[in-house]
Every structure is written in structure tokens, then in C-alpha cells.
Amino acid sequence: QVQLVESGGGLVQPGGSLRLSCTASGISFSIYTMGWYRQAPGKQRELVAHITSGGTTTYADSVKGRFTISRDNAKNTVYLQMNSLKPEDTAVFYCSSQFSINAYWGQGTQVTVSS
Question: How far apart are CA 12 and CA 113, in angstroms?
């Protein structure tokens, strides 16, 4: 059974930082592309960042220079370090894993940026 479990969300003030974690089980983690998506109220889910098995990273333009995705294959965990957070970053953040036709999602973690 595949499970992706996110943690690290919460309430933060504008300009603050959070680090999200996603720990996977039931997959050969190291061969999967891991990603973070987010969905704000009334909007479609969008890609935030992803990291391939080889460590290549891709970011949405809106988060470049502020967010950093990384992975620790020994811990089956992918991270999203979020700095300089803005109110428009408020969303539910979802972890994803993909390899070939196999794709899995976590349950999501809420990030709220507000003063």
C-alpha cells in the first residue's frame, strides 16, 4: 500500500518560512520523481516544484528564488523549504510521486500566510 504523508504546514506571517516534509512508503522512492503541488480556494491545483530521481529540479515562476525542493532517499522523504512567504502562497499543499504510469498523492497540508 502506497502512502505519502505530509507534515509541516501551518499559519505563518508574511515574510516567514516553513518547511514541508513528505515521507513515502510502499514505493521504490529513489526512482520516483517527487513533487509539490498546491491548490488555493477556488483555483486549480498547480505545480509548485518537482525533483527527479537524478536531482533535477523545476519550479513554478511564482516561487523561484523563494522555495527549494530537496530529497533524502535514505529517509524516503522530500522537502519543500519555503521562505519569504506571501499571502498568495496560502493553499493546501500536496505531495506527489510519479514513475512511468504510476502516480500517487498525499492527503495535503494547509499553509496559511496571514498577519
Answer: 5
